[in-house]
Amino acid sequence: xxxxxxxxxxxVPDLRTVLAHDxxxxxxxxxxxxxxxxxxxxxxxDGTLTERQLPRxxxxxxxxxxxxxxxxxxxxxxxxxxxxxxxxTTRINGRQAGTDTLMVRPGNVEFELVTPSDYxxxxxxxxxxLLEDAAARQGCQVDWQRLQAAEVLQVDGAARAxxxxxxxxxxxxxxxxxxxxxxxxxxxxxVLGSLLELLDHRCGEPAESPSLQxxxxxxxxxxxxxxxxxxxxxTVPQLCEQVHVSRRTLQYCFEDVLGMSPLxxxxxxxxNGARRELQGQGGAAIGAVAGAWGMSNFSQxxxxxxxxxxxxxxxxxxxxxxx
Length: 323
Prior knowledge:
Blueprint: H1 5-8, E1 16-20, H2 23-27, E2 34-39, E3 47-53, E4 57-64, E5 68-73, E6 78-84, E7 90-92, E8 95-97, E9 101-106, E10 111-115, E11 119-127, H3 128-138, H4 144-149, E12 152-154, H5 157-170, H6 184-200, H7 210-228, H8 236-243, H9 247-258, H10 262-279, H11 286-292, H12 298-309, H13 313-322
Antiparallel strand pairs: 1-3, 2-5, 3-4, 4-11, 5-10, 6-9, 6-11, 7-8, 7-10, 9-12
Helix pairs in contact: 3-6, 5-6, 7-8, 7-9, 10-11, 10-12
């Protein structure tokens, strides 16, 4: 039996939607990414991920109810483009991305995002070869070397809005919402065309100020010290002493680079680390886990944990036992 032209088409893959009430759980659901999410703001976490995945192209939308610090790595030989559908500031590697910007990072390179509460972001991940081929077909001029080195691009506002509309349509509903004759190639070309239209406009990366460079160095030094002494109850004066800056300077550095105080960063890092360990398969007692993360006062640890995540530490242990 001969197939009709419509039957012979390879249709766009179905939507995949994931709901999660733990930030790190949501991080693990994005196909082919290596990620870790730390919840920053206090309260119950609700996250949604919607994606369509092709062999060389991924389109997704992520919604996060709480502020999150994200450590991300995209699959090799690809480029990630992030378009927040949000007015508040996103931080990528300490740099601020606001309206009329596009975030960019190459594959197999770790990068950090700090996102605000009630946050929505669209993402495109495409193989570089796929992008180069599409650009050649459409006659787009893209500086690939500059693009791969960039973190934040200032882009045309109208082209950015058009790209967001295209991505929203690409992730709308299921296959029943797509015309019967729309195949994978047409869907893929539509997404890539919208992205290349954005890149083909006169866009550039804002210069990083020397003051921000200095503040990033201070923050990285402090973070390395915290990581190396995670089992110790460190104080802010101790951190200041390590990098030879005043308390006020350290505060400014952290707020500028991460959008939070050094004390909040340290508490967030340790509570999320303890939660991740309690939810794992190690089986260590709650008090031992808290102590290993520099929180030897059990009642204070339990109170801080409940405030951040909305549940007590024993809930993580119970969830682990029922897995």
